[in-house]
Amino acid sequence: MRIGRWSLEGVVHDGVLRDDAAVPFAGGRTVADALALGLAGLTEIAGWADEAAAVPLGEVALLVPLEAATVRDFVAFEEHVEGVTAAVDGASHVAPEWYELPTFYFTNPHTLLPDGATVRPPVSSRVDFELEVAAVVGRVDGSDGRDLSPADAEAHLFGYTIMNDWSARDVQGREMRVRLGPCKGKDFGMSLGPWIVTADELAPYRDGEGFLWIEAEATVNGTRVGHDLLSNMGWPFAELAAYASRDSRIVPGDVLGSGTVGNGGCLAELWGRSGGLTPPPLAAGDEVVLHVQGIGTLRGTVGIAAEPAAIPPARARSRARSRA
């Protein structure tokens, strides 16, 4: 089942998205209500569809498929790390710590963008995309989502969607030299969609370790620049979810990004491998199309940056310890 949110004549609807129709949930039910039921409630959720209110899919404007509680984005592909470190440091290197445990950062749930949206980047000479898949967390009866084992975390993975973690690499690079971040190099926009595909739909692609053997492809202005298998992740999603819950919680509506796939999942990886800005950074008007087998296609266009309000550099301070 594919569920999501859309706008029709200015009214927002939540419901089921089929190849040819958008079918709203009856009774004002929402995607959030579906996540609160979790995978165990799929049959009930399917029964919410108000078939009499179905409209052609081509008549609706898709929205971000959920109101995310939080967004964690992991870095789970070794090949991506190899390429990006070469772009940043001049030499490919994967830190030993990467292999020990998954790593993620929190990003901004308030700047999520739907399929087909235009992202407004910061002033940057190195605008980039990132091809990812994200798991969406649902409720499990009797679980508070805290300190989960991978086996227990699996049941919390309600479904999957496509993620484009837009990036300004020059801004990001400056921030991370302060040993914190990324922040403004990332939080201006993340595309998510076009819908959530429930986990049962991807079960045929799942191997015995929980990896999803699905193909992911990125094109820029119609030219393919990246192609990988999601199964090349260092950890399957259940292990990412378990780590996210360690000494913490995952709750319905949390989004867990896979991190950027390898083999051209972003331009920065390719810059590291080529030793230059080839392919070129994204520019205003460029269209990025991400396609993931079993999920769908997510489109986005780069907009025009706006000059920010000036903020002065840090002031030199006396480091006095008392007002006297």
Give structural notes.
This protein has 324 residues and is an alpha+beta fold. The model has no long low-confidence stretch (mean pLDDT 97). It is built from eight helices and 19 strands. Helices cover 18% and strands 29% of the residues. A hairpin with a 3-residue loop joins strand 2 and strand 3. Strands 1, 2, 3, 4, 5, 6, 7, 8, 11, 12, 14 and 17 form a twelve-stranded mixed beta sheet that branches. It has a five-stranded mixed beta sheet with strand order 9-19-18-15-16, with no helix packed on it. A two-stranded antiparallel ribbon has the order 10-13.
Helix content: 10-25%
Cα separation of the termini = 68 Å
Structural class: alpha+beta
Spans where pLDDT lies below 50 across 5 or more residues: none
Give the overall shape, derived from the CA principal axes: globular
- β-sheet strand percentage: 25-35%
Structural Rg: 20 Å
Number of helices: 8
Instruction: Summarize the biggest pleated sheet.
Output: 12 strands, mixed
Number of strands: 19
Order of helices and strands: EEEHHEEEHHEEEEEHEEHEEEHEHEE
Q: Could you report the average pLDDT, rounded to the nearest whole number?
A: 97
